[in-house]
Design goal:
This is Probable 2-phosphosulfolactate phosphatase. The longest helix has 16 residues, at 65-80. The chain starts with 11 loop residues before the first strand and ends with a strand. It has one domain (21-245): putative 2-phosphosulfolactate phosphatase (Alpha-Beta Complex). The strands form 4 sheets. Strands 1-7-2-6 form a 4-stranded parallel β-sheet, sandwiched between helices. The protein has a 3-stranded parallel β-sheet with strand order 3-5-4, with helices on both faces. Strands 8-9 form a two-stranded antiparallel ribbon. The chain is of the alpha/beta class. The protein is 41% helix and 17% strand.
Length: 263
């Protein structure tokens, strides 16, 4: 009997989080990370400015010894990669102006290489097997990503595309499905479907329906738990940037060096 969890026979598949991505990766040819607030949006902004972005997994709440060790490992990885390390949103300084905040990245001075840690989108991208194409998608580049995927022959049962909604984390570290990532994934699936890719798994069709049934995407994302949290902590501009639909024509693709660069 087949492994039905990998949604076999579909050209467009949909799953949640690091575990879902890992389950689909065994049969994946291309994996698309959707982390609207904010990893994939931050990647799109950085790549637009010419920055090569290296993803790195970092726990959501650095409280344990192992989690603090991950922060140190990120710093070591950045030094070894000849890159600067993005810090937490509230930790930016004139010397370290880069964070996962798209607004910060727009204002920060140029750096050729940037390690961008996060517990969700970056973790998924960093963990994907070397032989799998990894693309960062957000609402800013949906059409560009859809065009790139279909132009490269992805979105068929023989060469499926796995769309992964990154989600967020609950305080205990478990996955919190996030509305903004469901809608972002659904937007890409809808675009791929309109371009003739398919067929859709039942999971992908449900994500597509969620997006197409949302009358006001900007309002929905601003009112989501993630959007309200960012606004309440002073980062409402990040939410605004994340909902700049189809303003970016670049497609960030992970290269052999492990960095996202224009595809």
């Amino acid at each position: 009997m087949g492994d039905w969890a990998v949604q076999p026979g579909s050209g467009i598949r949909f799953e949640w989080g690091l575990a879902g991505a890992g389950r689909l990766a065994a049969e994946a040819t291309c994996l698309v990370v959707v982390d609207v607030l904010s990893f994939s949006t931050a990647v799109s902004v950085a790549v637009e400015t010419g920055i090569r972005v290296l993803p790195f997994w970092l726990p959501a709440s650095p409280a344990t010894t192992a989690e603090r060790a991950s922060e140190k490992a990120a710093a070591v990885y950045a030094r070894q990669s000849g890159a600067r390390l993005a810090v937490a949103r509230h930790a930016v300084t004139p010397d370290s102006p880069w964070s996962i905040s798209p607004a910060h990245l727009r204002r920060a001075r140029f750096v050729a290489r940037l390690v961008l840690p996060s517990p969700s989108g970056a973790a998924i991208a960093a963990a994907a097997p070397p032989g799998v194409r990894v693309v960062a998608a957000c609402l800013r580049n949906i059409t560009a990503v859809g065009n790139w995927l279909t132009a490269h022959g992805y979105g068929t049962p023989e060469h499926p595309v796995d769309v992964i909604a990154a989600g967020e984390r609950w305080p205990d570290g478990s996955l919190r499905p996030a509305l903004e990532d469901l809608l972002g994934a659904g937007a890409l699936i809808s675009e791929l479907h309109h371009q003739g890719a398919g067929g859709l798994s039942a999971e992908a069709a449900a994500a597509k329906a969620a997006y197409e049934g949302t009358a006001d995407l900007t309002r929905a994302i601003a009112a989501s738990a993630s959007g309200r949290e960012l606004a309440a902590t002073g980062f409402v501009e990040d939410v605004a940037i994340a909902t700049e639909e189809d303003t970016c024509t670049l497609v960030p693709v992970r290269d052999s060096d492990g960095a996202f660069a224009p595809g």
